[in-house]
Amino acid sequence: MPVKVVIGLQWGDEGKGKVVDQLVHDWADVCVRYQGGANAGHTIYNEIGTKFVTHALPSGILKSSCKNIITTGCVINPITLFKEIDLFNVTYQNLYISSGCPLILPHHILLDKLKYQKKIGTTAKGIGPAYADYIARDNKTIGDLCVNLEDLRIYVYDQLQILSTSNKYSKEYFDSVFQEYLKENEFEITDLKTFIASYLDKLESLSLFYRDFVSNTSQLLQSLYWMNKKILIEGAQGWGLDVWGSSYPNVTSSSPNIGGVLTSTGLNHQQIDEVIGIVKLYKSKVGEGEHSTQEHFERNVAKRIEEVRSSLGEFGATTGRPRRLGWLNLDEITEACQTNGVNRIVITRLDSINDIIKKDNHFCVYSNADYQDHLAWLSMDHFERDDAFLNQHALLSFIDNVKKITKVDNISVSYGPRRNQLKW
Ligand code: IMP
After folding, report:
1. pLDDT at 316 over 50
2. Is the CB of 240 under 6 A from ligand 1?
3. How many helices (H) and strands (E) does the chain have?
4. In sequence order, what are the residues at sequence separation of 6 or more whose Cβ sits closer than 8 angstroms to the Cβ of residue 418?
């Protein structure tokens, strides 16, 4: 049963991309994206190791023998996805999009900017409003773009009219947000009326374009499964951002958890043989909301916080915002493993221990279950970025503690950006 799911067990940005990249390279025939939209940034490498970043496309897109599938639980901005498809020279032989994927339309992005960007620190890509309209059974899908174009055009027109005349936002505020949207999307237009006309025209060419890519991806995946193809399923965000999770409302609007895989892909739970949970050695978060270990981390790292953030490169891949950093909390990871049925953990960024502990030479991991005072200091010597450090006693005992606390026996480690710096 060759189906593997890769789930980030924190708030996204755990380093899933590295693990997915390796599995794509060495193993997968099929790569599936099951939730989110262009709010994520995934780093992938081509055959000769050149780096690329995708936002909505699955990570197998550079491997010509890999079928890439975007399933129903993903939201699609037809304009930005078109640009990504163009950039990567994608053909319909290696990209399949579920006809049921909800669309992200201009009014969704404008509303995200007008209301939610400030409120909960969203990526302002229109993700939440697009899912909200879908759940209210009031959105359109990419299937509609292909076959119900006239309905879609009326919908887009009406929604923009409603939003632009809403008395919830002053005219000045709406105009400034609208101008920002036009600039970001490289529209050389300045007034709403001309924009609507030009957008509706654009939908016509997009309708033709997407016809070749759209299909019933649940049926496709079932048939690939029964052909014994190796299927890799990747999320865009992490479990901590799940809309049904405890961080609500500071979450994304979809389900990165295992439940999201089932509803989106049409595969069932018995068809999944491995759930790989990705855990970064420390926590990072963009956007608002509780962050249990941030204060203690910042207090400890004190004046070096900006230096640490820079050397770790902890800035949002989509928005460039600085990420809030904190220590790893193994109780949260345990809950994530139990909820998602994780049977392998990959701990990423082990090498970054050097960047964090520089002077004081200690590193902190929180756990209520096993450590006194709810936290432990792992005293470690500075590690070299090579295999030697994998045998160091402190690291091995740390991994033992992770096994004991999470009750997951298979632990893998990633300790550098290169493909060979990952020990399964
Ligand atoms: P949205 O997904 O743009 O609606 O944003 C909702 C919340 O999820 C915000 O706190 C974002 O910063 C966060 N978020 C969305 N995508 C990612 C991601 O790929 N990595 C980390 N945080 C994300």
Report:
1. yes
2. no
3. 16, 16
4. none
